[in-house]
C-alpha cells in the first residue's frame, strides 16, 4: 500500500515546490532563477488560485501584462528569468524562461518548447512553454496565447535548454 509522505501531501496542496530555485549565486548559469519580489507576487497567486489551471493562467496573465517583446538580447545574448523580470522585456524564449520558472515555483510541471512550425503553419525558430494542468497546454507569451496550437514543436529537457542557453550567450541568435 502506498503511504503518502508529508512532502507529497504538501505538493498536492500546492504548498511545496519540487523544483530547486537559485536566488543569488551569479556563478551558476540559471535561466530559471527568480527574484524575491516576483516570488512574493507568486505567493499571492498561490493563495488566491486553488487549481493548477488557475495558477498557470494567472502566471500567463502576469508575464503577458508585465513583459514587453523586445530585442535587448541582440546586444548581450539571452537573458534568464530574473533579468527578463527586472528589465520588463524579453524575446520569445526569454519570456518562456520566466513563465517556466514562475510555474515551477508554484509546483506546476512545465517545460521549454522549441517551435518549428507555428499555429499558422509558418516555419519559425521560436520558443514557448508547456504547462501541465493536468493536461499539457502550450503557452506562448510572444503570440499572446494561453492554449495555442502550434503545428510542429518539440519539448526540450532542462539539459537541452541549458546547453542552448549557454550557446545563445556566446552568439547573436
Helix and strand content put the structural class at: alpha+beta
> Might you state the CATH topology name?
C8orf32 fold
- The H/E string reads HHHEHHEHEEEEEH
Low-confidence stretches: 1-12, 20-27
Spatial arrangement of strands, main beta sheet: 6-5-4-3-7
Helix content: 40-55%
> How many domains make up the 3D coordinates?
1
Number of helices: 7
Beta-strand portion reads 15-25%
CATH class identity? Alpha Beta
CATH architectural arrangement? Roll
Shape: globular
Radius of gyration: 16 Å
Mean pLDDT: 84
| Number of DSSP strand runs | 7
Relevant terms:
7 strands, two-stranded parallel ribbon, disordered N terminus, alpha+beta, 5-stranded antiparallel β-sheet, C8orf32 fold, 173 residues, globular
List the helices and strands and how they pair.
Layout: H1 6-13, H2 36-48, H3 52-66, E1 68-69, H4 73-76, H5 81-87, E2 89-90, H6 92-105, E3 110-117, E4 123-132, E5 136-140, E6 145-146, E7 152-156, H7 158-170
Parallel strand pairs: 1-2
Antiparallel strand pairs: 3-4, 3-7, 4-5, 5-6
Helix pairs in contact: 3-6, 5-6
Amino acid at each position: 500500500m502506498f503511504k503518502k509522505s508529508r512532502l507529497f501531501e504538501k505538493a498536492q496542496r500546492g504548498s511545496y515546490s519540487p523544483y530547486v530555485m537559485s536566488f543569488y549565486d551569479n556563478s551558476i548559469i540559471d535561466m530559471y532563477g527568480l527574484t524575491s519580489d516576483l516570488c512574493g507576487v507568486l505567493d499571492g497567486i498561490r493563495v488566491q488560485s486553488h487549481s493548477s489551471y488557475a495558477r498557470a493562467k494567472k502566471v500567463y496573465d502576469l508575464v503577458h501584462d508585465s513583459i514587453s517583446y523586445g530585442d535587448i538580447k541582440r546586444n548581450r545574448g539571452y537573458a534568464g528569468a530574473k533579468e527578463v523580470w527586472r528589465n520588463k522585456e524579453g524575446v520569445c524564449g526569454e519570456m518562456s524562461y520566466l513563465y517556466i520558472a514562475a510555474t515551477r515555483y508554484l509546483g506546476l510541471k512545465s517545460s521549454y518548447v522549441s517551435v518549428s512550425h507555428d499555429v499558422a503553419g509558418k516555419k519559425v525558430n521560436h520558443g514557448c512553454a508547456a504547462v501541465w494542468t493536468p493536461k499539457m497546454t502550450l503557452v506562448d507569451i510572444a503570440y499572446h496565447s494561453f492554449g495555442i496550437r502550434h503545428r510542429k514543436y518539440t519539448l526540450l529537457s532542462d539539459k537541452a535548454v541549458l546547453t542552448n542557453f549557454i550557446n545563445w550567450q556566446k552568439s547573436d541568435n
